[in-house]
Known about the structure:
By secondary structure, the chain is of the alpha/beta class. It folds into two domains: 2-128, Response regulator (Rossmann fold, 3-Layer(aba) Sandwich); 146-231, Winged helix-like DNA-binding domain superfamily/Winged helix DNA-binding domain (Arc Repressor Mutant, subunit A, Orthogonal Bundle), CATH 1.10.10. It has eleven helices and six strands. It has helices spanning 10-21, 35-45, 61-71, 86-95, 109-117, 125-140, 149-166, 174-184, 189-196, 200-214, 219-228, and strands spanning 2-6, 27-32, 49-52, 77-81, 99-102, 122-123. A six-stranded parallel sheet has the order 2-1-3-4-5-6, with helices on both faces. Strand 3 (49-52), helix 3 (61-71) and strand 4 form a beta-alpha-beta unit. The radius of gyration is 19 Å and the shape is elongated.
Amino acid sequence: MKVLIVDDDALVAQSLATILSVEEDIDVLATGSSGPEAVARYRELGPDVLLMDIQMPGGDGLSAAEELLGEDPTARIVFLTTFADDEYIARALAMGARGYLIKQDIAQIAPALRGVMAGMSVLEGEVLARGVAARGARAAGVPGGPADAGARGADTAEAAREVRRTGAFAALTEREFEVVEAVAEGLGNTEVADRLAMSEGTVRNHISACLAKLGLRNRTQLAVAWYRAERG
């Protein structure tokens, strides 16, 4: 795969290029240092994957990604950042980014890029957990806010659930929908089984059925699809 790396820290960008170039199936085309440069080099080089930081003084990665995805919705953009920020995560997923990774886990970058090339969306574990926690907090209301904040949050959560139930996940049975909902909250098979009073084997069967109906490959993609559907 051909990869373009963009990070405002030249040492980080070059280190990533060196690490990834060792992989037989990865060709690092170039490096850049800002959002505008990412857009220009992407148009010039046509990489298979753009691996990009978010916060860059010369122009942020999220704005660059929005511009590129506006031109080419199939663009494979993966964010690699030190910021597991809830707002960044939500914005990245909503715009169609294929991955959101944390820089500390360098060993996972090459496998993640291969997953993206295979059509997967890749989320580092902490990112998925923070996305789940942030949405749970919003649904419960913000401590110290108006007295009816919790009720408004519950109404919003129920409305979002109905949008999913009748929209992106309409093909699922009610039980399958409940399984996907639990998976999107970050629960493992044992926890899903306990919540829904079913065996782990039944949970696995439901997940397989959901993946087949939705044309997805794994539970991470299920979670990503769940949160993207929140926008209706």
